[in-house]
Amino acid sequence: MQVEIYGTSWCVSCQQSKKLCDVKGIVYTYTDVDDTASLRQLEERLGCKVKAVPQIFVDGEHIPGGFTGLQQVLNSSIRTI
After folding, report:
1. Domain 3-80 carries which CATH code?
2. DSSP 8-state secondary structure symbol assigned to residue 51
3. SS3 state of residue 29
4. pLDDT of residue 70
5. Which of 38, 54, 69, 81 is a Cys-bridge partner for 14, taking CB atoms 3.0 to 4.6 Å apart?
């Protein structure tokens, strides 16, 4: 499972998303979108302006709902293993 988290250092849900992956032993990449170039790259990928963080992708697919969406995906993945 490949998890990509786009967030900011000041966002609590972003930090929770990273911690959730750490606790579950899931390797993830994190991109700080406080950097303008990274934000532009994310907006191009989504095809719209980013209004909230975290923005999360699992296996290349955008997961709506941020931290809550990630929790749901990880919980359903664990049940199916």
Report:
1. 3.40.30.10
2. -
3. strand
4. 97
5. 54
pLDDT along the chain (81 residues), means of 10: 96 98 96 96 96 97 97 79 44
Give per-residue burial for 18-35: e unless 16+ CB within 10 Å, then b: bebbeeeeeebeebebee
pTM score, two decimals? 0.91
CA-CA distance, 64 to 52, in Å (whole number)? 11
Listed in sequence order, the residues at least 6 apart from 66 whose beta carbon sits closer than 8 Å to its beta carbon are 13, 17, 52, 53, 54, 55, 56
Sort strands 28-32 and 55-58 into parallel, antiparallel or unpaired: unpaired
Task: Check residue 38 and give its pLDDT.
Answer: 96
CA distances from 28 to 3, 23, 47, 49, 51 (A): 5, 12, 22, 23, 22
pLDDT at position 81: 44
Q: Where are the domains positioned within the chain?
A: 3-80
